[in-house]
Specification:
homotetramer; alpha+beta; Chorismate synthase, AroC fold; five-stranded antiparallel sheet; globular
């Protein structure tokens, strides 16, 4: 329902236009040094209203930590964190109540909850809920870095038809946070930004792709069959609104390849077993193999567009049309970058705790 | 770990070269009429050794139902089913024990289980485990059809570089089971078969894609955010060995589109709310919208190939090479078709039970 | 960890001397009319500082509802509720940090969390956490009453050696909330109150028993073996600090009886199947049988006492002694009455949702 | 439903008169040396037909291990084990189908499963299902002993009104398995045996109590609030048919005590922190404190009795009477002793794995 994970478990609450958006993190071991500033830094990356390619809704999104920390360390108790909703503009939602927006959950939510759902701003289905993911992900990132040296890093590799060339981890580190679209290639970034502004002016929107890489993941995380790393990461990524495809390693491209081309041969590298290539994205049989974990996440274009669209009036049960004015990101992908990182960090933490590799490290601290 | 699902819950057990492969299905309501023959029919579709494009391992794969049925009906008790392993040939695995096969889980399993895992035939990581999925999926399919009229249907849409044109549901129904590659388009099927035989002769292998559609799924199944239909279906599909990408609706293609092109407008059709197109694969906000649910599943090429590949000797910690002789499917995709169907049926059943829509129908029977 | 239940799921957060104590309720169906006042009424029953037999800590314990309600109805989204901690007096806890209080979790928490736990006021192990249970239980009670007419009712049947005679449901309804010890028998209540004041003056404390009955529970809730009503209720009750025994029906007394004495014979009553006696507390084979569900919950005496007790200094690893001054209930049982009711309501709701009986009723409303 | 536990997870399947009774154990770490003989030894303790105080149903109850072991070690894969049902006598159940036996689940199961449940021999509600618990418990015991030196030990402390004096662990070890009632005090054992035979001849039955102790449990296992050791052990014990009360430490007796009498003072013993008494049964705040964990489990008398009892004919909806002939234990308590041990071992293993203490030990072996 609204809880994800087994050993590192996050419970989401809140609505887009309710009082707040929050998360309860359960399972974080005691003794992890962490500050509100660290969590805020991640939240700021996701914050709306940052630049010309994002929504004009302005939210401070200041993290409030309600429980689970004491004297600068995690205590082993659940960590409840939230951001208050301040800049709510629910006008328009009442009038649009009976005309579901195409591409949104308005219609399906109505069926599911018999009309009792909070429909303002998409309610529980809003992208704003991902603020909770980012807070939970910040704790996960801190834990992963502190104990295992794992780093989770994403960038925008595609916006509409603009695709970034293959970029290195160094390029992502250097460039992704320096341009408003969060692309690892500055030249493509400029073109992406222009494309977003262009469709935005026409009242339209764009989709895109986030590429993510997790470095220094120890070999052996994951489980065969049902709780594979791929399966758990994919489930967590599909929790991000607008995600419609998840690929690992070369992903869909592998379908066209031969075994002799696709297989990553093993080799020795400074006394350590590695693979020569990493077509399978660091995962074999659902378990990490010690290489970088790589995946691609495809986002559909923002469904809210200013252009006229067909829809139905569900009260009168007749056809009508709608224009979705309001404050929306013309392309959600740049702001989704920290969210993708967060969800992958959450899943890796869950599996690292399950495998017992974190306990061994943090245990020494106690 | 080895249990999947909440309301319809399947627990897998067994190994490729152990005594059997089985599954325990929990949560199936009492009162569903079902026979061993029905389950067997699904199992037969997955059975190895059926034709020239599949492995030469021969297994009867006769379902044994150990519990949960009485007088031809489900009883509400867990249903334990298994197939015995008979045609085991574990020769080769002892000698290959220290040289992990590229693309397989040999290395990661060793790390995870400290060398205690049953490595014969891939052990717990083998595709043979999917026999359990198919048995669990058969019960799910029976329940879905009997109560909701839901039909889950898949076919091979790509093998290597051979891609099927878009085919209708009718074409899948008519053709997919009539050719050894299970493609809905007979002409492509012939080319796919040829391609598989060709790489097989060279000791190589091919990947491919399975497309799946679920018909008559009622609107409102699924949950926002963490337990979306997409997330749960994806997690279940990544439980199938060799799957590396999962897409819904137009999937990755949506990333290149504009909102005005991608959005599925609502319309009235015979008094029912439908969408004009189905680019989002029947899912909005993680919930079914009453349209067909469509997805694409990408498989990497079978990692077992007869050609020489680099690997390491993990005892000596030095580089070496390997040829993986033995009995393997040169392309696993055709046999994966019923497995994909099974996993999607399992997830839809889980969500239908959660939403309470099955209980209402089956309840009348009691 | 900190989440309980499957279909009606509660996640607890907060600490005794942290910022707040809260709960997230997940799985409550949409469309239930509920107000903050209703929840507050239950909270007020648990509130500290109500009378001479309770702690002198004063907390307003005003419920704050952060999510999940809209226009007076549940929305189907998680309901986050909390009370702020205001009257925190953490003095004493710093000095007592190294001398674990006998009967408390100070020592075990230290081992578990390596000293990083928030030890002030018992932190995460404090009885104050049950404020969250009561809020979650209030929603559960509202749902049970509204849809099934289920009523959950408890009273103090024993304090120290003072035992109440057997009282009827009517007597509990009439008297339990009218005396500070919440006993269904006013005469015993007076003696209990006196006994508590007497030990309190001596710096000592008392244990006791809460008896609970759930009326109008439909037959057929629960599951055989692992998820029995007894098992789930017991697990939920042991979540209340100081509970050391849980009994159903005649409980421990049944051990001394013969089958012919203990068995509840079936009979017809106004066309309905009932049992003549209810020695088994309304549960057969882990499932409700349509009779009242009855159970007894034994509490140990409050471990915080003003008398000198032996303990150890865990820094110096040497023996010492301690007096636990501070604000504590000399007998926790009266304030535990609404908590016991809450937890039983939570479990019954979970099982009623699982069995599908609530959905059918509330579904009509939509 | 039919799965219990998180990190050490057992899934039960089978029916009393179906083909078999079995269990799937998930989460047992790889590398544990274990044999079928070890499991069989535990099963033999529970086996029916052992002596004059048990049922005359004769079952070999030979364990069949279907998966999860290889070369004498656990592999990390799920362990499926079962015993076949051979001596089934289902006569009588067809005629009794419409007249639910008092004290049994016949009526509640019928309501729950709409009459589709396998009612022969109690079906899924039969005590025979505990054979699965014992197999799962045997693996748990092996793991606990091998890694932590934990020993779980129970005996019959009460049969009807015959109560054993307090016995030491040594007396339990020495005597409990040497008399048919499994009492740690031989003199009481003789009287218990006589009492059982006496009621048995009259067609009646007796209840009783099993006392259990777990030695060498490390401090710090368990969790506050929802996943306390007490809560999880209680839930697991209520999975045993006929259990109606669970107490820890002095249990119900604590309700009558003062804090100054009940509290276990801390002390130093050979440099280790211990408590002087163990009134709280080795658990504080839901976590083990390093002392022995002790609990008492109360069983109602076997509901199957040869004497005439009132019941109803649920087809005709009218009152009638019934005699339950057949093969039943006149007192189930002696055979429940290994079952209680098994369930406690299962829960302790689950918590030991969760706390990471087993991984550290077994990890060294790899």
């Amino acid at each position: 329902m609204n809880t994800l994970g087994n050993n590192y478990r996050i419970t989401s609450f809140g609505e887009s236009h309710g009082r707040c958006v929050g998360v309860v993190v359960d399972g974080c071991p005691a003794g992890l040094p962490i500050t509100g500033e660290f969590i805020q830094k991640e939240l700021d990356r996701r914050k709306p209203g940052q630049n010309a390619v994002s929504t004009s809704r302005r939210e401070e999104d200041q993290v409030e930590i309600l429980s689970g920390l004491y004297k600068g360390y995690t205590t082993g108790a659940p960590i409840c964190m939230l951001v208050w909703n301040r800049d709510r503009d629910s006008s328009g939602y009442e009038t649009r109540r009976w005309t579901p927006r195409p591409g949104h959950a308005d219609y399906t939510a109505r069926i599911r909850y018999g009309g009792y759902n909070d429909y303002r701003g998409g309610g529980r289905f809003s992208g704003r809920l991902t603020a909770g993911y980012v807070m939970a992900g910040a704790v996960a990132k801190r834990l992963l870095t502190h104990t295992l040296g794992v780093e989770v890093l994403a960038h925008t590799s595609q916006v509409g038809e603009m695709k970034s060339p293959k970029v290195s981890v160094e390029e992502i580190r250097k460039h992704a946070e320096s341009n408003p679209v969060r692309c690892g290639d500055p030249e493509t970034a400029a073109r992406m930004e222009k494309a977003i502004k262009s469709v935005s002016q026409k009242g339209d929107s764009l989709g895109g792709v986030v590429e993510c890489v997790a470095l220094n993941v120890p070999a052996g995380l994951g489980q065969p069959l049902f709780d594979t790393l791929e399966g758990d990461i994919a489930k967590a990524l599909f929790a991000i609104p607008a995600v419609k495809a998840v690929e690992f390693g070369l992903g869909t491209v592998l379908s066209s390849m031969k075994g002799s081309e696709a297989n990553d041969p093993f080799t020795m590298q400074n006394g350590v077993i590695r693979t020569m290539s990493n077509n399978f994205g660091g995962i074999l049989g659902g378990l990490s193999n010690g290489m970088s974990i790589t995946c691609r996440v495809s986002f559909k274009p923002t469904p809210s567009i200013g252009l006229e669209q067909y829809t139905v009036d569900i009260q009168k049960m007749e056809e009508t049309s709608i224009r979705v004015d309001g404050r929306h990101d013309p392309c959600i992908v740049p702001r989704a970058v920290p969210v993708v990182e967060a969800m992958i960090a959450v899943v890796l933490t869950d599996h690292a705790l399950q495998a017992g590799v974190i306990g061994q490290v943090l245990g020494d601290i106690k």
